[in-house]
Amino acid sequence: MTDSSEIPESPDSTVPLLAARGLAKAHGPTRALHGASVELHHGEILAVTGASGSGKSTLLHCLAGIVRPDEGSVVYGDVRLDRLPEKRLSELRRTDFGVVFQFGQLIPELTAVDNVALPLLLAGASRGEARARAGEWLERFGVLGQEELRPGEMSGGQAQRVSLARALVTGPKVVFADEPTGALDSLAGEQVMSALVHTARESGTAVLLITHDAQVAAYADREVQLRDGAVVPLGVTA
Ligand SMILES: Nc1ncnc2c1ncn2[C@@H]1O[C@H](COP(=O)(O)OP(=O)(O)OP(=O)(O)O)[C@@H](O)[C@H]1O
Ligand SMILES: [Mg+2]
Fold first, then answer.
1. What keywords tag this UniProt record (predicted)?
2. Does any domain span residue 175?
3. Model pTM?
4. Which of 23, 25, 56 to mutate to test the pocket of ligand 1 (most atoms within 8 A of CB)?
């Protein structure tokens, strides 16, 4: 497999891995983001919290290069993601980013193991190699004996674990996870968070984690809170 990443392996720790400044994004008349700024550092696990509708998912989509902001900048290393042509952006998303969406985005026709194997196949792995590695990742996230189920046959929690395995299988530099434990009971949620945090720490992967759950946020190195489309300044709690 090729690694076309432009991000150095031995980072200058004073420069953020990913930085968003002054993001604004409207959906029709709704201002989902206005003036949101946030930094994610190399290997950092950052929790993003905030009320429903405060703009968390929109922020994640802008940082991951899925949605272009109307205003502001998103800088990854020294690359302006918000200005990158679509072809280079999708290549960079494939090599450097793993995403777990809030509402499952597994491919309904593919089994669990084939969903997880897909990013490896796209990166040039053989089918046998991709399926073997996919199986290891499913095991790590506690999806055992369900490798051949299709998303429609899985519970919400199983589907979310398969999504996490798919996001991590290629060894991304950044994982974006939108409510990864939202559909799980607290024990299963804890197991998934432990697996995610352990994997991220082991490989130096940075994680941007959206959650409503204070117990989940406690796994993070740092937490930022969104309110009305902007980050609440430090020290302001009420
Ligand atoms: N595609 C869309 N079309 C129209 N409005 C949208 C769209 N996506 C988001 N919004 C609106 O933008 C605002 C921010 O939405 P966003 O999904 O970012 O919030 P959130 O903090 O992730 O909420 P939740 O915790 O419920 O997932 C909300 O008012 C929402 O209704
Ligand atoms: Mg959301």
1. ATP-binding, Nucleotide-binding, Transport
2. yes
3. 0.90
4. 56
Identify whether 6 is part of a domain.
no
Q: Is position 32 within any domain? A: yes
Among candidate residues 66, 65, 97, the one with its CA nearest the CA of residue 80 = 65
For atom 13 of ligand 1, the residue with the nearest CA is 32
Which CATH number goes with the domain that contains 148? 3.40.50.300
CB 42 within 8 A of CB 204: yes
10 within a domain of the structure (yes/no): no
Question: Can you list the residues of the chain whose pLDDT is less than 50?
Answer: 1-3
- Supply the pLDDT for residue 232: 92
pLDDT at residue 105, as a whole number: 86
Domain residues for the domain of 197 are 18-230
Pairing of strands 174-178, 45-50: unpaired
**Which residues does a 6 A CB cutoff place in the pocket of ligand 1?**
27-28, 30, 32, 50, 52-58, 102
pLDDT at 2: 44
- Rounded distance from Cα 66 to ligand 2 centre (Å): 14
Number of domains in the chain: 1
